[in-house]
Amino acid sequence: MGTPGQAWGPAEQAQWRARQVRQRSYASDVLAVVEGLRTRFDVSRYGEVAYGDDRYPVHAIRPRQWVAGLPTVLVTGGVHGYETSGVLGALRFVDVHGERYAGRVNWVVAPCVSPWGWERIQRWNHDAIDPNRSFRPGTTVQESAALMALVAPLRGQFAAHIDLHETTDTDESEYRPALAARDGKAFQPGTIPDGFYLVDDTENLQPAFQQAVLQAVAAVTHIAPADDRQQIIGSPVLAPGIIAYPLQALGLCASVTGARYTTTTEVYPDSARTTPEECTAAQVAAVCAVMEFVLR
C-alpha cells in the first residue's frame, strides 16, 4: 500500500482503514463480562474511545476493599487489540483470583485498552497508530491518553505493572511490513520466537522479579529459546526468556505507572505446542506471580 520509500499520507491511511473489518464484538466479548463482574468488584468507566459513530467505553476493575498502604498493582490487557489472550487473561484473573488478592493488594485491571483494535483484530488504532508507542505526556492517542488519565491520581503508589501481550505470526507477515510501508522504510524480515518471553526495562532492570514471573509461567507453557544470535526479536537475551526495552523512551504502556517492578508478557499463540486456553492460562499465571512477588 502506498509508494515505496514514501510515508503514508491521509489517502493511504484511509485506504488502510477501509480494509479493516469488524470481526468480533467488544460489547459481547468484553463489556458483557465486565458487567458480570460488577456484582463482586468495583467497576468504573475511565474514558471513551470514539471514532466517528463508533464509541467504546473503557472500564477499570478494582476490589471493593481498597486499603491504604497496601501495594498497588496495575494489570493492562488489549493495548494491542489483536492480542487476544491478554484481554481474556486480564478478565479471567479478576473472575477467578481477584477476590483472593482483595484486601492484600490494591489491584487495578484495565482489560481492553484498545477496543477498536479488538473488534478488528488489529494492532493499530483507527488512525494507523500503535497505542503501545504512544504513552507519552500530552499524547493525542485516545487509547493511551485515557489509560494515562486513569493512572495519574495513583502515580507513586504502584509497586508493579504487568502489561499482557502476544507475539504472533502476523507480526511478521502483516504488521511489520505495514509499519515499514506506513513509515516509508524498507521492510527487514525477522523471526518469531516459539514460546513465552518477558520484556524488562533497560533503565530499571529487575531480574529477580522477571525470574519469579517466568518461573510461574513455565509451569503452564513453554519459554521461548534464543535464536542463533542469542536474541529474541532482535534484542539480546538477558536470561532465558527475558529481553529488555527502554520503556519510557519508546512510549510503551509498561512505563505509565513509574512502578519499580514492570514487565510485558509476550505469549506466542501460533505455536504448534500450545492452545488458546494455554495462552490465556499463561497470562493469568503471570499476573498471579506479580501479586505474589509484591506480597513478599
Describe this protein's structure.
With 296 residues, the protein is of the alpha/beta class. The chain has one domain: Zn peptidases (Aminopeptidase), CATH 3.40.630.10. Helices cover 35% and strands 20% of the residues. The chain has a 6-stranded mixed β-sheet, covered by helices on one side. A hairpin with a 2-residue loop joins β7 and β8. α3 packs across α9 (276-295) and α7 (207-218) crosses α9 (276-295). The chain is globular and about 55 Å long. The relative contact order is 0.16.
Task: Give the arrangement of secondary structure elements.
Elements (H helix, E strand, L loop, with lengths): L9 H9 L7 H12 L4 E10 L2 E9 L9 E6 L6 H18 L4 E5 L4 H6 L21 H10 L6 E9 L2 H14 L14 E5 L5 H12 L12 E2 L2 E2 L5 E4 L1 H4 L10 E7 L8 H20 L1
Parallel strand pairs: 3-4, 3-5, 5-10, 6-9
Antiparallel strand pairs: 1-2, 6-10, 7-8
Largest sheet: 6 strands, mixed
Instruction: Report the average pLDDT across residues.
Output: 96
Our count of domains comes out at: 1
CATH architecture: 3-Layer(aba) Sandwich
* Strand residues, percent: 15-25%
The CATH topology comes to: Aminopeptidase
Parts with pLDDT < 50 across at least 5 consecutive residues: none
Number of helices: 9
Descriptive keywords:
single chain, 296 residues, alpha/beta, Aminopeptidase, 6-stranded mixed sheet, two-stranded antiparallel sheet, 10 strands
Short description:
It contains nine helices and ten strands.
